[in-house]
Amino acid sequence: MPNVNAKVPVSKVTASHSAGFDAALDKALANASKLGKGTFNVTVEFWAEIKVVNPGTIQQYCVTLTPRN
Predict the structure, then answer these.
(1) Please, which residues have CB within 8 angstroms of residue 14's CB and are 6 or more apart in sequence?
(2) In this structure, are residues 8 and 27 in contact, taking their beta carbons and an 8 Å threshold?
(3) Domain count along the chain
(4) Omega before 55 cis (within 30°)?
(5) Are 66 and 45 within 8 A, CB to CB?
(6) pLDDT digit of tens for each residue in the chain (69 aa)?
(7) pTM (2 decimals)?
(8) At residue 41, what are phi and psi to the nearest 5 degrees?
(9) Is 47 helix (H, G, I), strand (E, B) or coil?
(10) DSSP labels, 1-39
């Protein structure tokens, strides 16, 4: 399984930061399911694209699924 990345724009999130990361994880898992079926061990990395102003703001909530050997 290759790495799977997913991004959710902040405009699609109306609740909280955790809701943004939940949405990105859901999207990453949906993308991973298109690669085939099976059982995979993965590392889940949550990250954000931010715009640095005063105050800084999140632009996209992101998740990367990386296979573990």
Answers:
(1) none
(2) yes
(3) 1
(4) yes
(5) yes
(6) 688 888 998 888 888 899 999 999 999 999 998 877 888 889 999 999 999 988 888 999 999 999 887
(7) 0.81
(8) -95, 125
(9) strand
(10) ---EEEEEEGGG--S-HHHHHHHHHHHHHHHHHTT--S-
